[in-house]
User: Fold these one by one.
Assistant:
Number 1:
Amino acid sequence: MLMRTSYLMLAAAAVSMLAHVADFAPVGEPINNVSSLEQRWVDLGTDVKVSDPVPVPAVHLVARGKKKSSSKKKKTNNKAKKSSKKKKSSSKKKKASKKKKGSSGGTFKGDGTYYNAGMGSCGKTNTDHDMIAALNAPQMGYAANPNNNPNCGKYAKVKGPKGTVRVKIVDTCPPCKKGSLDLSPAAFIKIADLAAGRVPISWSWD
């Protein structure tokens, strides 16, 4: 800005000098007195000071390749987040499956009786010597095809006054109340005497 002002002052001084020279020289005649022209230049005092140029600050350029690397890092971070989400969802599924398995767990209490085995509702034929039992109707549940009942083939650990026995569910006991089991004679004598006929029991899925 200072340099531009100096140039303007110099141009104005030159114009003024030419105007003064024109006073001494008639129109149409050449100016031969060079020394007088120089004296005019000195008289006008055209001392122009040009300041040093203003330093321009250096500009730091950032390489574009770094931005690409940051985008790659973001992508890898996104993949890591997705994998962690999958792990969380799989762990949630495992917990849900565990809850489903445990929903039918626990200890049940009811009456223990015995019956003469034969063809059961699960579609299998058994004898009185087999360690089997018929599950009460409320817990056995209803199935369109009783042979495909999910409780068929499950094992129960039964505890009575005399001991404990492990039996397989192969039939349904319609008159039995919830928590009760109707056992084969061979299984019943493990927990009580046959003469008792009916005894209190507690049992759980095994």
Number 2:
Amino acid sequence: MPCTEILNNPRYKRITLHTLSIIFGFSSWMGVNAIFLEVPIIINSAPEGWKLSSYIVLIVQSGNIGVLLYNILQKYWPVKDAYLIYGMLGLGCLGSLLIGFLYDHTIELWGHERSLPLFIFTFMFALVACTSSVMMMPYMGRFLKQYIITYCMGVGIAGFISSILALGQGSGSTTDECVPSNSTESGFEPVQVPPRFSVELFFFIHFFLYLLSATAFILIVKMKKFRSEYAHITIRDGNDYTFKRHEKEGSDTDLQDSSKILYEKLNLISTTEYRYLMTLTGVLSIICNSVLPSIQSFSTLPYGTSTHHYSAIFSLMANPIADIIRLYTPERSVKGITCLVGVLAIPATYIFVIALMSPNPPLQDHFMGAFLSIAAWTIYTGMYSFINVSIITIFRQQGGKSLVYNGTTAQESINNILLFSF
């Protein structure tokens, strides 16, 4: 079936746009995740040694300067967000291509060798990741609400793909093999098993995924057929759009055919609820994106390295699954979200408690200990993703600027840097 005929069919058109939205979502945090997943391998040759992870965390947090510059730019010199997103996607493609060649190069600074190329590319990925919350995600808000959910699914799926690649590569493996040696009495010495494929190939695969993501966004913007999937909004520069309450007039066939789904019932909230959800976004971001991830190893490694690996994998699987569930469930009210946060506190508290009791948490030598640790991380990640997308869909209906404010709050770096320093 020709492409034009597919897009003329409303069902196929929506499936195509959902697919492109998912692929576009790949570009959000994919580069940053790739860096962290390769640290166990890169750290063996990096001059920073075990301090490398700390440097990378600070560089990633510094990417939030992009959020500040974006807000200043759109306040004084508004431009179309599509142009800025093109630039960010180009930055991601360039970084993922060059890092494959230069990740292990060092430069002497102040009398010491430094992994400067690696740090530069990490900052490039951080800019893409941090600004995605105020540019890419709000951009998808101009479409019907289900498309912003599939975009969020893409963010989670990209992390899952990267983790599967890292597991297949053997990143972070603690397995050694014995090889013949004349320097030991036994005639053998333990040598760490090398990765199944190189760091270069790992990053080149991500370069291909960035290209796919960039292509998906270009198609979303340039294919005029997709504009019939816009919500009933007035669009201005800088992701500044507002929803209309009156039925749209026009003779465009696509718009008329889609009219039954274009006019959403808006879930408008009060100023008090608006401030409450914005504050909740900031608090959840600090706890779920800074505090708990920083203690993950303390809550999982006492039960074994396999527990640590499986908790990471199942958590990444829970993210897109939660978004799929959200896609097919009714709109959540502010009270409903508050109740879900109360439920989220249960696995989060359990994780925090067993981390405090590390290195001797309860049920350390029992199967149930590992099972509960993995289950807590999986449930916590899935619920946080569900709650986060639910809040995003509510803010989306308050207008595009509300999504930008929400993204800015979620990416607030001051508290994260203070927590890291502490």
Number 3:
Amino acid sequence: MNEKYFEYIEEQRMNESEKNEFLRKRAEYEYIKNRRYSLYGIMFSVIGLVFILTKDLAYEYFDKQFSFVFIITGATTLAFGVGFILFRYLQNGSFSKYTQSDISNQNLRSEVQDLRFELIKLRKKSGESADYENISKTINNAIDNTITEDFIKSKIDSFYSDKAISEAKRKDILDEFENLSYRINGELTRLRKSANLNLVIGTLTTICAIVALGYEVFNNELEFSNTTKLLSHYIPRLSIIVFVEIFAFFFLKLYKATLSDIKYFNNEKTNIDFKIISLKAALNIGNDKVIQIMLEELIKTERNFKLGKDESTVELEKVKNDTSNNQIIAQLLEKLNNK
């Protein structure tokens, strides 16, 4: 009996150790990954700043065209660096989701768990060995005399078999809901990544356009003899800036649309959570009428809505409002162009 008990303790200890080891490695991986992304962001940002700050040296030793290449390279590298940092911050809410203290806590937890199991083994091995053996023999004799195989089988068949079948059916139903919730969580994670990426691209593109416009306006002291030369100088540059802003607006529009999708899936997840709670409560009560009502409500769930005449939803009204605003902006631009 002692050997079996020690084997059980050893098995439990190994299971806990493997679990703690997995958690520790996961924490280390997340910590290293976040630090690596932050390092990439800082490295690209520093390289970009070096290129931008040394443009005058490039102009002095080479020519103006080579200096312009330095500016473009520096701005692009700086944008990549800031993009890395912003993306990691938006994903985790901080620059390092798992800190060194988290890893230390995992290591301490694993060591304490190992010590706890070793202490249990030592307690069982030492102390009142003779008394333990006598008590063990008495218990074994009582079990052999009273609890036979037929007795155990009859008790299991009468009490546990129906309950086990019922619990298995209940678990299957709840597992289906859990799988649905897990799938929605995965979709939410994907949407958040996509939204953050669109926000970073749109923000950086807008900043680049603003910097380019400011550089063109305040850094170039040019004199033009006539209006034609003035327009030929500024129109191409302003056209590029407008194009870049439209590009940024596209990504910011995608970010806004993704936020609406995230809100929709969050509402769906909330509905599923409430249904899981209601179903668990109905199964725990064991009232057939309540369970029937719950099943009828679940059957009524319809995802492909069919709206009747003069019916609408919040999302449709938002789309109509956005379309109306875009038409107004297009009309204003057309009027300005005609003038």
